[in-house]
Every structure is written in structure tokens, then in C-alpha cells.
């Protein structure tokens, strides 16, 4: 019986956060600190013919100005195709050309405007299909597409297949082939991007106060960029005002800030404005997905064939690797006998995408779940039934080699179907101005980390001091998601130490042990297991010492309220620690543990059990569409997720609700509108995030499958809630109107256009409109 | 020019440029960092503070206009020296805080609204509570727990 796990606990540092005391990157002030500002390209595609910084340098208060000619650096990005400061060619509207450090932000911004850049404007390529043509110019001069992938503008390419595609096609009673268009959306973290850098000239050490999600990979990346030794770079994370994947890639502004600090000899801070955040922070991958999928006469799925073209933008970020996750969805969401998957990231003169909560999975799931509805319609099957008979199951090893040792796919589907108003809406008359509809969507995502980097592990150091306080030094990071609260809860559960006696130290690469970072919904899973390993070691130490002190042979003590209990014996933990410390042989109560998940690297064909476990979820979403205004209102969201086990209910619920808000925005309102590489809505007025009045009631039903790989049986849960949301909403809108939408977001404008075309068509023909 | 105003109960006289924004007075001059700069264009509400009982976006408000007025920032509520305000307590209890960058603004908006409702002797409906928070954006929580917390202030 658990005392702590499974019961709601407030955020560990909630009191600081709710009283304005938490220190975010924007709040840091160092002595003599300068403020940095970056000059970006005026045109998305041009040749720079000259840069004159003399007027900026002459401005009072300006301490240094840098351009590409002033720095000795390596390219960044995982394909190393991205110069930190650009010379010669500019490839997108974000391109950094020069940077200034000045005594105030106002002076820095003014100096930037005084830098004179002359351009020769070129015609850019903004459509990846155009970029693939032989006649298109080579967009990124560092791209290796010609050698590696047979086309100069192909930045990355993933291929996967399993099963006998031809045989499965022949077996199919129905084959649906559709093309889906996914928009560019952005994280819109409430805190804009920020960094503060300080360089110590005496020992060549660089300290960065950075909101990275992956401090140890970041340390390595920034060291490579700056040609420094990684160990000379100390990364300190202030409180982070939102991540959602946006802080997985190191971006040019970060080494730029370091370079300004190195050159000026003073600390430098760069804070993005909100406009800059829209223009120059990562986005989700826009893509075109052509999906063909089939089912036999009973509705059993036969195959999926996906061909995907992603708009890579001008440089390659981690975003180009989202097919790694998408292929798992195509190969293994529901039972799929055969799968063919090809995804290519194509250079264009658009801004580059990055990683975003869900990592390609919302896009893939949108196409799959839309096709499933279409197959059911053609087969005359119930849309619930077709999903239920194809659901993943416990013990399944998928065509890709994912092994579902536990699987809540079917229970999740059954739960949302049962709890929602599915039947009532389906059977109610659907006439008049307001039309109700209901839609289903399911998802599969990694739940136990993902073996992508050479290690997917996490280290923990644990110490108990002479007064019985516990310090957890963890490699993992808190970005608001609540993982450090979960770690404290695990320690409370196992060691009987109250929360007010627990400190979590997790912000400093000079102090904390290694961890790969916050991504892949992995933190509670990996850091939780790592902490449990460390707790086992510290208990062995305490048990041995306490047994010695109590003069009993060996004992496995119970830990409660700061005490260790065994039969009639009891002794305070702090007393045991002091005896350990002050009596011979003088030891500290200190242990280290490193946890590496049991997951395996996939082979060259991307086959293998890539995660410690897998999360499943289903959503039923009820909508009402106003056929006069085109507005889609979400009435209810029913979401059921296999989380393995609920650790902190209030924290989990927060992840679900927050994810859904982003998912609903993706489905209905959010889109970065570009015209020839130039963003037209770089502000909250034009970029429509949901507000408090847009949120529907959310009904959450956790499914507990107790997967033995996770801490207490839990699975990663952070990304799942937004993955099937757009799919379920699109299916619901289609159900309400009898018109299908093949692109997101489903705006009022699109709805009205579709309705007007539908009226015309019912008069003229029965041709189904694609690509609305 | 010289302005005199009350902030978090303390009277201050300050020489300022007439173009100074209230958020910059609060964060850069008075160094009260709890008020957050989310967009500096009046769209996100992260910088909300209370001026004479009303929540306003301090990024859209000239500092000279607080002359003779009373300003409350997040530091004026529970801050470790004073116990937490009821609004802050409810935000914590209901799990309304994730990254926390919007939280100061959410708390100040809710505080102004609940003080007004209490003074008028009315208990707002859930829809009215939602409406009162419409000017404050949050990317982490999906608002549900913030709305729950703001509603619980009246219970």
C-alpha cells in the first residue's frame, strides 16, 4: 500500500512560483552586464554584398559588434549545416548577420539598426516540392543531399518497411489514399528565449544561464560550435518558462551571446522580444503526407503506405528526425501487417522547424485516424468497431519490433467510448444551424524514453545530512512539467522523509550527474528509476549501520516519519547518519547511481524495441459547428491514457489538460502564416492560441497497466495528450458536417468554404473535395 | 518628471522619464522581478499588476500615470514575509502552476476580480470566472486548473 505515490501533491517549489520569487532567465542581472541584440536578414533569400558596422560601433554605449568575419566557429545543427552568423548567402528570414553588445537593451537595439547591409535579392524557394525539382537552386551550401540522398535539397531521409505490401494490398477490400497538409505552428512559451553568458578570461571557463532542455547535449554542442572543451562550459538552468521541445536544439543566439561575452570580457544577456520569439524560435514541422491504407472485408487493417515531404526550412534541426517517431506510429499504431514509410526533409527558404511536444506524432496520427474513418465509411462499418478490432494488445511485438509488454490500447478505447456521449450524438438528428459531431482518435508513443543517443540514462546522487535532510542531485531537468515533485514523492515514499526536508538539485552541469535531457516523455520514467536505484543503495548503507548500532545481525528496516523500524527496534535516520559520519570508520551518507533503460538501439532498418515501455491513449471529442459562422466549438473532450500507473494525479491531470489545449489549438486555430518566407502574424494577436474561454470540459480516465519497467509501473505521459487531438477533432467536424478536412487548422473560413462547395456539389456532382 | 505613488503599501517618490512604461519602472527601476514580461504588447497578461483596484497590463501603461495611485504587484501579496494570499493558496492547491511564467499575472488578475466581486457581494459563475481570465495566456495548463483555483476563491 502506497503512502505517497498515487496521491496528489503540490508542486515542490510551488510557493516560490506563485509568489513571484522564482528566478527566470529574464530576471538575472550580473554586475557590469551588457545586453545583446541580433541583426537578422531583411530578405529570406539574398546575397550579402557588404556589411558596414562602423556606425553601430561608434554609438555611445556599444561595447562590441560581431559579424561572421570576426569569429572562429563551427557550424551548428545536427547536420552541421548552419552557420552561427551568416556571410555570403542568407537563406531565411531568421538568418543572423551581426550582433551587438551594449550597456542597455535600447542602445543595443539602436545599434543594430545602424548596421548597413547591402543585399542582392534572389528568388527564394518556399515550396519543398519546387525545391526537389532539378531546376531549383541548391539552398543550403553545406547540405549533403546530392551525395547522400540523390537530391541537392534533400536534407534528411528516412525509409522503413515491414511485411509484404503487395500481398496485403491484394487482400484489401478497401484502400483509401489521401493527401494531408499540416501547418507550421509554434511553441509560444510564455517566457521568450533567453540566455546570459559570462566568460572568465583567467581560466577560459564559460558559464551560461540557459533554458535548454538538454543541458549535457547542449554543453557538447556549444563546445563544438565555439571550439572549446565541453568541460570548460558550465550550464546553469534558471527556472524555465515553458519548453515543449523548443529548447532541444541549440540555436545561433546562444553561441552568439557567448561570443559577445568572450569578446567584450563582460557578462552579456540576450532576451528575445515576443516578435523575435515568433520569428526565430523553433516550430513544428509542416509537412505533406500522402497516406494509403487498407482493410479487409472484416475491417482488419492490411497495410499502410506513407510518403511524407517535410519542409525542412533553410537549416537542419532535430525536427528533421521526427520521422523516427512517425514511423513507429505508421508501423505500430493498431495492428498493421505491412508498412511502407518514406519521409524526406527538404531544404527551402522558410525558417527551420525544431522539435515540439509529440515530435511528428500529431501529424502522423492525424493522417492515420482520418484514413481509418474513411475506410470505415466505405466498408459501412462502425467507426468504434473498426478501431476496437484492430487495437494493439498486450504481448504484441509489432512489425517494427516494438514489444508491448503491457498495453492499455483497448481499455483506453473502450473507456472513452463508454464515458462519452458518442451514441447520443450519433443518433440525434443533425439539422439546423448548429451541427453536433463526435470523433475518435488514438495514439501510441514511447513511454520509457527512447534510445536515440548513445545513452538514454540518468544519474542520481543522493545524500542525507547530519540533520536528516535529503538532497536529491539528479541529472534530469524541471521545465515546469512537475518531474522534480515526482522525484520528491518517490523519496518520501521510500525513505519516509517529509517533503519539507527534501531538496532537489538539478540545474548545474558542474554539479549534477549526466542525463540526456527532457524529451520523449522520459523524465519521470528515467529519473524516477535512477532515483529508486540510488535509494536502494542508500538504504543498504543505512540498514547496515542501523543494524550495527542496534546490535542486531541484519535487518531490512521500514522507513517512516524520519525513523527506521524493524520489529521492536526503532532508530532515527539522522542519528544513524551522524553515527556513520562521526564514528569510525567515518563515512558520509552519500551514494551515486546511474540508470540506463533496458531499451535497445534499432538496427539499420529501424527495427527494435526502442523504448522501455509504450503509452497508449484514446480520445473522443464532441464538437458543435455553427454552419453560419463556420466556428467549431469543442463541447467535451474525453481522454483515456495508459500511463502505467498514476504517480501524482494533480500533476498528471495538468499535463493532460495542457497538452489538450495545444492540441485543440493545432486542430482549430493556430497557424504561422508565411508569404514567401516572411511571417505575417508574429504576435499573439495574429497567432491564435486558446484562451480560458475556449477550453471545453475535459474528462480524463487514466488506465493503469503497471508496466514493470517504469517506476511503480508508470509510463511517460507528457506528450500523449495532444497527439490524437487534432485527429479526433477533424473526425468530429467531418461527422457533424459530412465534409472532410485534409488540412489543419480547421478554421471558420475553411469550414464556410467547404460548406459552400458542398452545396454546389450536391447540385452538380458527387465529387469528393480533397485538400480543402 | 517626479511621481509619487504607493507600491505594495510603501510610498515612493521617483524621478522618471515620461516615456517609461510601468513594467520597466517595476522590473528595472524598483527591481521587483515577480512581474513578468511575456509579450510587451498587451496580449498575454503576464505583466498584470493592480492599479487602484483594477488589473492592468503594466506593459501598456505609462509609469507617469501611477502618480498619486496605489500599485500592487505579486510581491505585495504573500511573499514569505506575509502568508500567501487566498488566491495564491488556491492556485497551489488546485495545481494551477506549471512553468509559472504566467502565474503572477493570473494571480493579480484573479485578485483584482475577486476583490471586486467580494466588495459587490457577488459570486461569479464559472463562465464569468473564465471571462475574467481571458486576457491572460498560459501555454502549460490548458487553463482548467487556473479556472478551478479562481473559482475556489469564492468557496
- The CATH class name of the largest domain in chain A reads Alpha Beta
- With strands numbered from the N-terminus, the spatial order across the biggest sheet of chain B is 2-1-5-3-4
- Corresponding CATH superfamily of the largest domain in chain B: Beta-grasp domain
Q: What's the story with the biggest beta sheet of chain B? A: 5 strands, mixed
The count of DSSP E runs of length 2 or more, i.e. the number of strands of chain B, is 5
**Number of separate strands of chain A:** 28
Span between N and C termini of chain B? 45 Å
Average per-residue pLDDT of chain A, rounded, comes to: 96
Total of helices of chain A:
20
Q: What overall geometry of chain A do the principal axes of the alpha carbons give?
A: globular
Task: Give an overview of the whole structure.
The complex is a heterodimer of chains A (772) and B (155). A 7-stranded mixed β-sheet of chain A has the order 3-5-1-12-9-10-11, sandwiched between helices. Chain A contains 20 helices and 28 strands. Helix content of chain A is 29%, strand content 24%. Chain A has 3 domains: 25-123 and 191-241 and 247-280, Aldehyde oxidase/xanthine dehydrogenase, a/b hammerhead (Aldehyde Oxidoreductase, domain 3); 287-450 and 604-764, Aldehyde Oxidoreductase, domain 4; 457-595, Aldehyde oxidase/xanthine dehydrogenase, molybdopterin binding domain (Aldehyde Oxidoreductase, domain 4, 2-Layer Sandwich). Chain B is an alpha+beta fold. Chain B has 2 domains: 2-76, Beta-grasp domain (Ubiquitin-like (UB roll)); 86-152, [2Fe-2S]-binding domain (DNA polymerase, domain 1). In chain B, helix 2 (86-93) packs across helix 5. Chain B starts with a strand and ends with a helix. At the A-B interface, helix 1 and helix 18 of A face helix 2, helix 3, helix 4 and helix 5 of B.
Amino acid at each position: 500500500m502506497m503512502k505517497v505515490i498515487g496521491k496528489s501533491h503540490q508542486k515542490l517549489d510551488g510557493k516560490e512560483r506563485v509568489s513571484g520569487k522564482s528566478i527566470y532567465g529574464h530576471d538575472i542581472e550580473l554586475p557590469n552586464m551588457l545586453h545583446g541584440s541580433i541583426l537578422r536578414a531583411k530578405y529570406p533569400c539574398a546575397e550579402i554584398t557588404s556589411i558596414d558596422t562602423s556606425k553601430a560601433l561608434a554609438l555611445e554605449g556599444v561595447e562590441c559588434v560581431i559579424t561572421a568575419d570576426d569569429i572562429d566557429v563551427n557550424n551548428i545543427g545536427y547536420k552541421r549545416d548552419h552557420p552561427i552568423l551568416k556571410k555570403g548567402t542568407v537563406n531565411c528570414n531568421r538568418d543572423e548577420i551581426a550582433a551587438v553588445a551594449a550597456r542597455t537593451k535600447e542602445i543595443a537595439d539602436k545599434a543594430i539598426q545602424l548596421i548597413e547591409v547591402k543585399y542582392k535579392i534572389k528568388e527564394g524557394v518556399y515550396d519543398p516540392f519546387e525545391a526537389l525539382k532539378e531546376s531549383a537552386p541548391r539552398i543550403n551550401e553545406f547540405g549533403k543531399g546530392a551525395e547522400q540522398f540523390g537530391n541537392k535539397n534533400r536534407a534528411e531521409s528516412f525509409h522503413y518497411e515491414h511485411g509484404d505490401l503487395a500481398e496485403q494490398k491484394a487482400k484489401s477490400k478497401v484502400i483509401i489514399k489521401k493527401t494531408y497538409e499540416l501547418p507550421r505552428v509554434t511553441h509560444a512559451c510564455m517566457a521568450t528565449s533567453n540566455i546570459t553568458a559570462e566568460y572568465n578570461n583567467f581560466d577560459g571557463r564559460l558559464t551560461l544561464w540557459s533554458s535548454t532542455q538538454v543541458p549535457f547535449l547542449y554543453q557538447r554542442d556549444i563546445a563544438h560550435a565555439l571550439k572549446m572543451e565541453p568541460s570548460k562550459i558550465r550550464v546553469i538552468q534558471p527556472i524555465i518558462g515553458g519548453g515543449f521541445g523548443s529548447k532541444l536544439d541549440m540555436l545561433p543566439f546562444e553561441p552568439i551571446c557567448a561570443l559577445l561575452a568572450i569578446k567584450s570580457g563582460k557578462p552579456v544577456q540576450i532576451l528575445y522580444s515576443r516578435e523575435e520569439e515568433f520569428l526565430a524560435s523553433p516550430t513544428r514541422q509542416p509537412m505533406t503526407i500522402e497516406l494509403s491504407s487498407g482493410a479487409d472485408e472484416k475491417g482488419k487493417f492490411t497495410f499502410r503506405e506513407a510518403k511524407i515531404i517535410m519542409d525542412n526550412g533553410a537549416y537542419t534541426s532535430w525536427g528533421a528526425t521526427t520521422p523516427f517517431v512517425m514511423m513507429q506510429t505508421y508501423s505500430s499504431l493498431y495492428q498493421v501487417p505491412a508498412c511502407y514509410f518514406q519521409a524526406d526533409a527538404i531544404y527551402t527558404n522558410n525558417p527551420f522547424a525544431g522539435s515540439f511536444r509529440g515530435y511528428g506524432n500529431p501529424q502522423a496520427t492525424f493522417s492515420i485516424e482520418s484514413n481509418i474513418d474513411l475506410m470505415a465509411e466505405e466498408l459501412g462499418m462502425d467507426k468504434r468497431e473498426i478501431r476496437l478490432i484492430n487495437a494493439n494488445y498486450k504481448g504484441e511485438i509489432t512489425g517494427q519490433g516494438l514489444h508491448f509488454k503491457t498495453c492499455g490500447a483497448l481499455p483506453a478505447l473502450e473507456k472513452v467510448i463508454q464515458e462519452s456521449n458518442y451514441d447520443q450524438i450519433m443518433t440525434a438528428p443533425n439539422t439546423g444551424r448548429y451541427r453536433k459531431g463526435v470523433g475518435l482518435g488514438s495514439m501510441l508513443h514511447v513511454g520509457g524514453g527512447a534510445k536515440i543517443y548513445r545513452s538514454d540514462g540518468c544519474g542520481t546522487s543522493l545524500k542525507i545530512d547530519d540533520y536528516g535532510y535529503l538532497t536529491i542531485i539528479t541529472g534530469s531537468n524541471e521545465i515546469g512539467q512537475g518531474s522534480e515533485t515526482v522525484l520528491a514523492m518517490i523519496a518520501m515514499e521510500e525513505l519516509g522523509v517529509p517533503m519539507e526536508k527534501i531538496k532537489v538539485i538539478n540545474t548545474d552541469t558542474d554539479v549534477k550527474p549526466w542525463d540526456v535531457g527532457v524529451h520523449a516523455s522520459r523524465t519521470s520514467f528515467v529519473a524516477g528509476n535512477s532515483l529508486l536505484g540510488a535509494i536502494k543503495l542508500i538504504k543498504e548503507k543505512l540498514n547496515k549501520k542501523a543494524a550495527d548500532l542496534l546490535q542486531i545481525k541484519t535487518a531490512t528496516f521500514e522507513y517512516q516519519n524520519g525513523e527506521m523500524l524493524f520489529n521492536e527496534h526503532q532508530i532515527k535516520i539522522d542519528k544513524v547518519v551522524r553515527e556513520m559520519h562521526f564514528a569510525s570508520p567515518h563515512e558520509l551518507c552519500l551514494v551515486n547511481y546511474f540508470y540506463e533503460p533496458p531499451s535497445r538501439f534499432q538496427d539499420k532498418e529501424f527495427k527494435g524495441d526502442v523504448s522501455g515501455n509504450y503509452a497508449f491513449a484514446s480520445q473522443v471529442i464532441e464538437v458543435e459547428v455553427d454552419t453560419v459562422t463556420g466556428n467549431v466549438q469543442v463541447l467535451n473532450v474525453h481522454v483515456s491514457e495508459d500511463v502505467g500507473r498514476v504517480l501524482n494525479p494533480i500533476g498528471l491531470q495538468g499535463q493532460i489538460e495542457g497538452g489538450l489545449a495545444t492540441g485543440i489549438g493545432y486542430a482549430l486555430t493556430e497557424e504561422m502564416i508565411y508569404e514567401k518566407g516572411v511571417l505575417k502574424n508574429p504576435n499573439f494577436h495574429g497567432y491564435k492560441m486558446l484562451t480560458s474561454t475556449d477550453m471545453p470540459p475535459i474528462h480524463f480516465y487514466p488506465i493503469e497497466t503497471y508496466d514493470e519497467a517504469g517506476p511503480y509501473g508508470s509510463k511517460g505521459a507528457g506528450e500523449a495528450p495532444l497527439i490524437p487531438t487534432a485527429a479526433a477533432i477533424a473526425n468530429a467536424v467531418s461527422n457533424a458536417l459530412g465534409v472532410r478536412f485534409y488540412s489543419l487548422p480547421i478554421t471558420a473560413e475553411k469550414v464556410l468554404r467547404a460548406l459552400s462547395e458542398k452545396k454546389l456539389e450536391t447540385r452538380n456532382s458527387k465529387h469528393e473535395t480533397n485538400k480543402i | 518628471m517626479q511621481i509619487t505613488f504607493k507600491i505594495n503599501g510603501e510610498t515612493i517618490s521617483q524621478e522618471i522619464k515620461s516615456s517609461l512604461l510601468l513594467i520597466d519602472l517595476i522590473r528595472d527601476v524598483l527591481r521587483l522581478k515577480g512581474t513578468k514580461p511575456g509579450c510587451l504588447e498587451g496580449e498575454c497578461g503576464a505583466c498584470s499588476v493592480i492599479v487602484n483596484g483594477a488589473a492592468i497590463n503594466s506593459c501598456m501603461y505609462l509609469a507617469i500615470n501611477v502618480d498619486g495611485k496605489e500599485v500592487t504587484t505579486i510581491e505585495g501579496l504573500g511573499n514569505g514575509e506575509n502568508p500567501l494570499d487566498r488566491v495564491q493558496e488556491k492556485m497551489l492547491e488546485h495545481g494551477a502552476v506549471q512553468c509559472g511564467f504566467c502565474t503572477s499575472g493570473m494571480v493579480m488578475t484573479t485578485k483584482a476580480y475577486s476583490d471586486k466581486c467580494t466588495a459587490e457581494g457577488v459570486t461569479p459563475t464559472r463562465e464569468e470566472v473564465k471571462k475574467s481570465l481571458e486576457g491572460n495566456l498560459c501555454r502549460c495548463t490548458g487553463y482548467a486548473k487556473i479556472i478551478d483555483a479562481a473559482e475556489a476563491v469564492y468557496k
